[in-house]
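Before surveying the methods themselves, we first show a specimen of the format, giving the amino acid sequence and backbone structure tokens:

:::
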Amino acid sequence: MVSENLLRILVCPETKQPIRLLSPDELSSLNAREDLLTVGGSAVNRPLEGALIREDGTIAYPIRSGIPIMLIEEGIRITPR
């Protein structure tokens, strides 16, 4: 999916916190939720194939077609703000 080399250099574009790949269990739990919104306010209507979560656990960045989408407005809020 996402190479280890890329994971070592990627950071959250908003806070510069380190990120990590969600585990399969975490991804499954996230995909089971129906209340997910992006930072930009859009509903997340399709299952995620993968995601990178920032260190504080509040924002996840989706992976689409094997490419991390590291745009602030595409980040998915994991906890309410």
